[in-house]
């Protein structure tokens, strides 16, 4: 049976995933911006978020949320974490029972510290939930570069059915049933990417970058495992894989924020001039609260939090990070 897909969110990643799915199944993308809808339907472009990229003609968009949701056999959410719950509430009256809901979002809800799949379970009880996550920079994928990703759900049967929707020639999609671990990897790596960006903005070298990525991975693994994720998940595509892509790519918005902070600019000024979302800035306070709750030391994330709050300069934070006294490699810090 052919599954119909509704995807909510007309930004860079929503449009990219909708383009991939359109090769395998009928899909309707909902965007709140009517100009984006016209651009996708008439010009096969999303000039606002993916300039100079041609979209597949099979991809169509709507500005009526009910049109994307009511006929859907699968709902995909590509809305930043700050507006995720609100959009899910708008979709709820149109959604048929038991339709699986897959999140593409790599953030946490500020007010509740919840993961997006927890928000889905709260708003839409009974619907199977999952994430599609991994080292997936939208522009590279739209340029036709090969990439791998992971669809993660706790239900082994449904996850295999949905894998086929997203998988295509150059976009390899694996399955994983450690939903919490996969989802958290995508959230937490954003903060480490800001730290690495800060170092790059300050002129640090490749050795420093490598040390930060490795210690950052240890840090996010400690928190993820304390929260119930599997250690091996953090060494896979959704953990180490996404860390490498986000911490090293000039396309990463989180790394970009770090680079600008490293140059000495203020966070408000950096965010004001960005059209796109950098989830790590918003997640940092929530991650600090979770680290405290689970008794996990996260010195890199803490420095990023202090710099983004304006309490510490990037230079001071970075000196602290590289000068920290070193214990055993297996220790925190
Ligand atoms: N870009 C990437 O490479 C990747 C991104 N992600 C994750 O995907 C999520 C979405 O990111 P991305 O697409 O890149 O973000 P963008 O910043 O490119 O776009 C955000 C989109 O969300 C829409 N939006 C925001 N608030 C609302 C709302 N209240 N109602 C309706 N639409 C809304 C915006 O609409 P409008 O234009 O009208 O403001 C825009 O279409 C993030 O959590 C990100 O971390 C994950 C993997 C890769
Ligand atoms: O999650 C991403 C790559 O996997 C995108 O990272 P940014 O949000 O930092 O651009």
UniProtKB/TrEMBL annotation:
EC number: 1.1.1.94
Coiled-coil features, chain-numbered ranges: none
Catalytic residues, chain numbering: 189 (proton acceptor)
Domain of life, source organism: Bacteria
Enzyme class: oxidoreductase
Catalytic reactions on record: sn-glycerol 3-phosphate + NADP(+) = dihydroxyacetone phosphate + NADPH + H(+); sn-glycerol 3-phosphate + NAD(+) = dihydroxyacetone phosphate + NADH + H(+)
Function: Catalyzes the reduction of the glycolytic intermediate dihydroxyacetone phosphate (DHAP) to sn-glycerol 3-phosphate (G3P), the key precursor for phospholipid synthesis.
Gene3D superfamilies registered for this protein in UniProt: N-(1-d-carboxylethyl)-l-norvaline Dehydrogenase, domain 2, NAD(P)-binding Rossmann-like Domain
Pathways per UniProt: Membrane lipid metabolism; glycerophospholipid metabolism
Transmembrane domains' residue ranges: none
The keyword GTP-binding is assigned to this record: no
Originating species: Parasphingorhabdus flavimaris
Gene: gpsA
Glycerol-3-phosphate dehydrogenase NAD-dependent C-terminal domain location: 178-315
Residue ranges of domain Glycerol-3-phosphate dehydrogenase NAD-dependent N-terminal in the record: 4-156
UniProt family annotation: Belongs to the NAD-dependent glycerol-3-phosphate dehydrogenase family.
InterPro entries: 6-PGluconate_DH-like_C_sf, 6PGD_dom2, G3P_DH_NAD-dep, G3P_DH_NAD-dep_C, G3P_DH_NAD-dep_N, NAD(P)-bd_dom_sf
Binding site for NADPH: 12-13, 32, 49, 106, 138, 253, 277, 279
Name of the protein in its database record: Glycerol-3-phosphate dehydrogenase [NAD(P)+]
Protein location: Cytoplasm
Residues that, per the record, bind sn-glycerol 3-phosphate: 106, 134, 189, 242, 252-254
Keyword terms: Cytoplasm, Lipid biosynthesis, Lipid metabolism, NAD, NADP, Nucleotide-binding, Oxidoreductase, Phospholipid biosynthesis, Phospholipid metabolism
Main location per the UniProt record: cytoplasm
